[in-house]
Amino acid sequence: MTDRYCELAHSRDGSHNLSNFTQHHLGEVGDFTHRVVKRRLGNCRTMTVTCRVSSPIKRNVIGMSI
Fold it and tell me: Model pTM?
């Protein structure tokens, strides 16, 4: 299956205006060391991150740090 990816967008104003979604590969099945990293987000006091996942399988977000 090659369509496992997530799309991330961020907002600095409480999700009123989102950035463009950027596509990130989620890795192969069983690759538990793969991480999705999005850099160069700038500075702000509050930020909202929106994530869309393409794969129809069960998934869990284990952790997120900004």
Answer: 0.72
